[in-house]
Design goal:
The chain has about 575 residues and is mainly alpha-helical. About 55% of the residues lie in helices and about 5% in strands. It has 21 helices and 3 strands. It is elongated, with a radius of gyration of 32 Å. The N terminus and C terminus are likely disordered. Its main location: membrane. InterPro entries: ThrE-like_N (IPR010619), ThrE_2 (IPR024528), ThrE_Dicarb/AminoAcid_Exp (IPR050539). This is Threonine/serine exporter family protein. Belongs to the ThrE exporter (TC 2.A.79) family.
Length: about 575
């Protein structure tokens, strides 16, 4: 009797030991073999990695060993076989695993990397689906590579953020780069000047965190397009870490596509095109006004450049850049020649308004990055205040010397499509040059600018819709076409969108408000400035909504990604 009890205890202990070995611990790496998805159970219980990876093999039935507590002459009674359809009732998952959502190997392929990374970014880490990689890295291979991958991720995020990309797209790029190099548990974070990323090797190991400060910003959409192409190759598993570092160094070393004198020339031509757009006349004075705006904007650009070399903040650069155009407009109105000085001032404002920062600020706010959006909006406010201060000082002096500034006599009161449409397209072209856009993008973005202005003109002149609503709809069309073009090119939408919004900027409304303030009419000035702010907000919201509509109805683009074009080496000034 004692022997039977001991044998029974030993059998129960061995059964418990087997059950203990087959159970997956919560903090075990075996949990990584189960793909938690958006569908099905996120945490399967009672399944081993072997049971998920291999189907049950058909083995020959064997006779179970007789239990020690039973008499030797009694045959064992086989238990009932469980029904395969009753796995869920027993608290187990099927041996084939649960049906989950998995992301395919990256692009360029089924979807652009921003869409695939937004899927991960907007999902909690515990519920993110796993990648279907072509090769699974060993822990010994991933561990030593973590610092370099994090540093590469931060450098790429720095270039994107410095180029004016929205915070969500920057985080999506950082997440895509880290996941492509087998760092699955990563959390990027982007603010206005600081980007960071944290990687957690496991639930028991301490996280590895790295950060980088973005101190210098610039508008170079050619460099932005190169970074997008690099991220697409990384997420598509077409570039190793060393290849990515080499290509990133080439991107940073490359010069801007246009020299300084071309940018100054484009600034003057942009202001001249704006005078034709708001003046709407093709007479003898139009050429003089065009030339005056051209010269004033070029002088303002050179003065701002000289101030920047002295290390003064950007606020003072905008103050100095806005003064020559205002002074030229006041000079033209001193005589009794009825010259359109107000149009010259308005053209100078078009060349200075920070449309790029405004679009990025509203995009961050709409996607939930409120801290970054508030910082960007504050930046836009400071720049606009600098423009207002520079123009207002000159206008105040002009009013004191009895300058005859009558914008109601100089601005176009009726649409002139044959004249204003080419002027709007020319303004878009020169704005794209100022943003350092690629030469292949210039024709497309010029057409988009014409489309936006045409929609605005039809809505305001033919349909009688409010200019604020018409601006939002026109900006939505620009955002829609810009997003479609970016998906076709597998690139960022900023080069196709930002410059096309130039003709819709509220330059004339801002000038009317400033002139009212200079004349001592604060109520009328505040009304005009509030109207300009509403137009600017409609502009930014409309372009963001157009992009979201394009992403909603065109989730999977057709065709393959772009081929990588190796450019010739350029002479540089160093890394």
């Amino acid at each position: 009797m004692v022997v039977t009890s001991a044998a029974s205890a030993a059998g129960a202990e061995s059964a418990d030991r087997v059950d203990e070995e087959q159970r997956v611990p919560e903090d075990s790496e075996a949990r990584g073999s189960v793909t938690p998805g958006l569908l099905g159970h996120a945490e399967p219980v009672g399944t081993t990695p072997a049971s998920l990876e291999q189907p049950p093999a058909e083995t020959e039935p064997t006779e179970p060993a007789p239990a020690a507590s039973e008499p030797s002459g009694t045959a064992p009674q086989p238990g009932p076989e469980p029904d395969p359809d009753d796995w869920a009732a027993f608290g187990h998952t099927p041996v084939t695993g649960t049906q989950v959502t998995a992301l395919r190997v990256g692009a360029p392929g089924a979807a652009p990397w921003p869409d695939r990374m937004r899927t991960l970014l907007r999902t909690p880490m515990s519920e993110r689906p796993a990648f279907e990689r072509s090769r699974t890295a060993e822990p010994s291979e991933v561990g030593p590579n973590v610092p370099r991958v994090l540093d590469l991720t931060l450098r790429i995020g720095e270039l994107l953020l410095a180029s004016g990309e929205s915070a969500e797209d920057v985080e999506a790029a950082m997440l895509g780069v880290s996941h492509a190099y087998h760092l699955d548990r990563c959390e990027p974070q982007v603010t206005f000047t600081l980007i960071s990323i944290s990687y957690q090797p496991s639930l028991v190991d301490p996280p590895v965190t790295a950060s980088r400060v973005v101190r210098r910003r610039g508008s170079d959409y050619t460099r932005l397009a190169s970074v997008y192409r690099l991220v697409a190759d990384i997420t598509g598993e077409h570039a190793t870490v060393e290849d990515a570092y080499r290509r990133l160094a080439e991107i940073r070393r490359n010069r801007h596509p246009y020299p300084g004198w071309v940018l100054s020339l484009a600034t003057g031509l942009l202001a001249g095109s704006a005078t034709v757009l708001v003046g709407g006349k093709a007479d003898a004075q139009a050429l003089l006004v065009f030339a005056a705006a051209f010269v004033a904007s070029v002088i303002g650009d050179r003065l701002a450049w000289a101030v920047s070399t002295r290390g003064l903040p950007e606020f003072y650069q905008f103050v100095v850049a806005a003064m020559p155009a205002a002074a030229m407009g006041v000079v033209l109105t001193l005589g009794d020649y009825n010259l359109r000085g107000s149009v010259v001032i308005t053209g100078g404002l078009y060349a200075l308004l920070p449309g790029r920062a405004l679009v990025a600020a509203v995009a961050d706010g709409l996607t939930g990055f409120y801290i970054t959006a508030a910082a960007r909006l504050l930046e836009v406010l400071y720049l606009v205040v600098g423009i207002v201060l520079g123009v207002l000082l000159v206008l105040y002096l002009g009013v004191k010397v009895s300058a005859s500034l009558h914008p109601e006599q100089t601005f176009a009161t009726a649409p002139h499509p044959a004249l204003q449409l080419p002027a709007a397209m020319a303004l878009t072209l020169f704005f794209a040059v100022l943003l350092q856009s690629n030469r292949r993008v210039l024709p497309v973005v010029t057409v988009f600018g014409g489309i936006g202005w045409t929609v605005y003109g039809v809505l305001t002149a033919q349909a009688g819709i409010s200019p604020i609503i018409a601006t939002g709809i026109a900006a939505g069309m620009v955002g829609l076409f810009g997003e479609l073009a970016s998906r076709y090119r597998y690139a960022s939408s900023l080069p196709y969108v930002t410059a096309a919004l130039g003709p819709l900027m509220p330059g004339s409304v801002i000038y009317l408000g400033l002139l009212s303030l200079a004349r001592g009419e604060p109520l009328a000035g505040l009304v005009s400035i509030s109207r300009a702010a509403a137009i600017a907000l409609a502009l930014a919201v409309g372009v963001n909504l157009g992009g979201e509509v394009a992403r909603l109805f065109l989730q999977v683009p057709q065709g393959d990604g772009p081929e990588i074009v190796r450019r010739a080496a350029k002479r540089t000034r160093g890394f």
